[in-house]
Design a protein that fits this description.
Shape: globular
Largest sheet: 9 strands, mixed
Number of domains: 3
Number of helices: 17
Helix content: 40-55%
Strand order of the largest sheet: 1-2-6-5-4-3-7-8-9
Oligomer: single chain
Radius of gyration: 23 Å
Order of helices and strands: HHHHHHEHEEHEHEHEHEHEHEHHHHEE
């Protein structure tokens, strides 16, 4: 690595280690200063003039201390052949970069790129039931058969997470494990063999430096990455509270689709999933085909319209369908704003079009096309 690149990497790592600076603030500082190294070279009084940056944050940039830690981290990543992705790098996951709190750095060990054509996060309870484990395997097996190359993202935790990784490995799908600690350790240790396989058929990813252990508060940061890296998140089993629900809520607020596997009303392990569906935050999913159809993935053998169906759109329907195709997940207000059609008229047309199975509505009253306007001009 050229000297200038190495020096800049050291500053990037140092900035990511600053104790009072999170991803949003780090991005703001870089936007104003130009680069990570420029942040450290700015005078404190200049930094403090940046909106949201006060004496406490500017004072946390102890360059000599942070740069020394960063130097040790660079020795570790070089020794263990770990890649470091900066948020401005082309290989940094684009989906995660769309989230305002995406980390500025990711440490990656493995051979899977983080910008796949299609990706799905799968999460759930650590205390999975036989029903949950079986359905997780069944859905991922179906996805492997229908969507070769789909990347399964999860957190390598006990229960549904590790089951999702193992199912992906078994059925030949690449899989990415997002860790709540640095790459000098592996938690839980019982999943170490699975982690080794993931390195060869996917990647281990974290935004924590090597010295960081699996502390409780780290897992919220881990969940943000799981939610942000994929097109959608599937919750297989979850109690009323837990990390899987946090991930689902994060995905929902990132404007990503959320799916939940329903369960019996008396089953505590399904209470979280049932509530997500009840609150219209998640679409009900029991099979790979349902997920594929809802995401409108173009998969041979899965049609988004009835066989032999002849479609004829009115000019109003064409305008609305075009708006939905151009902005999947758009709301009625968004459609009205783009097309200029009064909101009440939009709502009436959406209802008719949904009854015809031309569009589908999802969590958050977001709409997606189930037919292609280009195929039926």
């Amino acid at each position: 690595m050229p000297h200038d690149e190495r020096t800049e990497l050291q500053y990037r790592i140092a900035l990511s280690m600053a104790p009072a600076i999170g991803p949003i603030t780090a991005r703001k500082l870089i936007e104003k200063a130009g680069e990570a190294s420029d942040v450290f070279k700015q005078k404190r009084e200049v930094l403090e003039k940046i909106d949201g940056i006060g004496p406490h944050i500017s004072g946390s940039l102890n360059a000599s201390n942070l740069l020394l830690k960063a130097e040790k981290e660079m020795e570790f990543i070089e020794k263990h052949r770990i890649s470091v992705l900066y948020f401005k790098d082309p290989d940094y996951p684009t989906r995660l970069n769309q989230c305002k709190d995406g980390p500025i750095l990711l440490y990656v060990k493995g051979n899977q790129g983080l910008n796949p054509i299609k990706s799905l996060s799968v999460v759930g309870t650590r205390k999975a039931s036989g029903y949950g484990r079986d359905l997780c395997m069944q859905i991922i097996r179906g996805l492997a058969e229908l969507v070769p190359g789909l990347v399964i993202v999860s957190g390598l935790a006990y229960g549904i997470d590790v089951m999702a990784h193992r199912a992906a490995l078994e059925w030949g799908l690449p899989t990415v494990a997002v860790l709540g600690h640095g790459l000098s350790t592996l938690y839980p240790a019982s999943n170490r063999e699975t982690a080794k396989k993931i390195i060869h058929q996917g990647a281990l990813v974290t935004d924590f430096s090597s010295g960081m252990g699996p502390e409780r508060n780290n897992f919220l940061r881990r969940n943000r990455i799981i939610a942000g890296m994929s097109d959608a998140t599937l919750v297989v089993e979850s109690a009323e509270k837990g990390g899987a629900l946090i991930t689902a809520h994060l995905a929902f607020h990132y404007d990503r689709l959320v799916f939940a596997v329903p369960g019996r009303t008396v089953d505590s392990k399904s209470a979280g999933c049932n509530n997500l569906i009840k609150k219209n935050m998640a679409a009900l999913a029991e099979s790979a085909e349902e997920i594929i159809s809802y995401l409108n993935w173009d998969i041979p053998g899965i049609s988004h319209q009835r066989p032999g169906q002849e479609l004829a759109f009115t000019s109003l329907e064409k305008k609305i369908l075009l708006a939905i195709e151009q902005a999947p997940g758009i709301t009625p207000d968004g459609i009205s704003g783009i097309t200029g059609i009064p909101i009440q008229e939009v709502l009436a047309q959406l209802l008719e079009m949904e009854l015809k199975d031309w569009i589908s509505s999802g969590p958050g009253n977001c709409y997606r096309a189930r037919v292609s306007l280009a195929s039926h001009p």
